[in-house]
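Protocol step 4 of 5: obtain the predicted structure for the target chain.
Materials: sequence only (see below). No template structures provided, no constraints applied. The aim of this step is simply to have a reference model before the mutagenesis design in step 5. Sequence pasted as it appears in the construct record:
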Amino acid sequence: MHLSPSPLSASIHELQTLIMSFHPAIVIETVEEERVQTLLQEATQDMKMQLLEWSITQGLARSHSASGNTGTSENRWVDECAPPGAHKPAAFEDTADPLKALKCLQDISFKAVFLLKDFARHLDDAEVARQFREVIQLFAQSRSAIVLTGNAIKLPAEIAHDVVYFDLKLPGRDELQQVVADVMRSLRVKNRVQIELQDADIPALVQALSGMTLKQARQVIAYAALEDGKLTLQDVGRILQRKAQVIRDGGVLEYFPTSDVPVDLGGFNGLKQWLAQARVGFSPQAQALNLKPPKGILIVGIQGCGKSLAAKAIARAWKMPLLKLDTSRLYDKYVGESEKNFRQAIALAESMAPTVLWIDEIEKTLGGSTGGDADGGLSRRLFGSFLTWMQEKAQEIFVVATANDLSQLPPELLRKGRFDELFFVDLPNDAERTTILQIHLTRHRQAPQHFDMAALVKAIDGFSGAEIEQAVIAALYRALYLQKPLDTAILLETIKATIPLSVSRREDLQKLRAIAQERFVSVR
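Step 4 output (structure tokens):
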């Protein structure tokens, strides 16, 4: 049986191919500097090339691996804990200055790879930029290469033309599993932490770490273990909570662990039946028939009718983590940053597959100005990137897109085949309003049997699920103010004082229903 290479070995091979094919300048945009070092150490060791590193504080020096360090994960962990300066190779004389460092590179006769850390900012200097171009022209003939790394790398136009970008994906399961082994070994030796994880528990821990950098993974494992002096399967929950915070702070996605996703979803029987059938697309039996996993669904409807809740319910039913694309953080005022944010969000989702990716109010992200240039064509570019990814994605990522305003959606997004199905959510009917009302009364510790449900269900005709919830909450506040238990009369009084969207936006709802009858499937 043919086994595909691991993401780590594939990254090493790709780097080696770039170097051997006369690419003199490679850019790796990442915060994982240590991981870049490790990849280059393994790549150059296999190619029998030397690796040298430069920083403005240390100057140019041979990499640790070139000085006898094997570059193994165990030694990397030891290096992190060693005193500052321990086993540090001597730097070439007077190379901390960027211009002098480049001149030193030009004079080095042996074939090597040079890792220049945070060097891109120095290329704004005309003399440094000119010297850099001369060095890479020389390296293009010798198979030596410069690797520029940093978080956000912006290059002058005359240099950007001569470089190639290497996409360093988030760590795969093989790298994360190695980190788990490294940390457990170190904790046993140095801190005498009690490791209670069995071999069968490791996959769950590795899955919990997916989507994190290697440094973040090491930190959360060590923290979970050191907090109570032991590492157990129960620590997976703590790691998931920490991961949610890391993802929220670090990008445009919000993470909902499976255990945190609510399950109360009134009605939607048609959608639930479709999802039960679609779920088999993730099974080994479907794979054996060369069937691809389902791509996703688009849910359109009036605000407050449960579209967002449906996304959460899908993740819970399928026992998958839920990622929400935060559109407010996607757009950036700087040219190219919004596209970069989108690519990073997709890369993170892919690293955590299988997962559910929820794009709320997709018309605000990929609609609106897709037909014009009001935003410099940004929405159109993001729209094109999204369609390409939806068409080509191989990972098990189920997209749940929700929309309120069909007029803002590009026609291409509604074409059959983009999504597996298009659903329409109308205002709840009698039975659904009964269920929704019971859910919210029970959630706020009220017994539904103590209310005149028939009268209440009739009174909330035309209310969305969100409006029903708010009516219950407002009535409870009213009851607290009156210092009496909530009853049917207080609820009816609150309901009569509410003007639902079905009244204030009657024309929009009628238009949406007319379109939905022709193109969409009812969630019922």
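Step 4 remarks: The two ends are 45 Å apart (CA to CA). The domain at 260-425 is CATH 3.40.50.300 (Rossmann fold).
Proceed to step 5.
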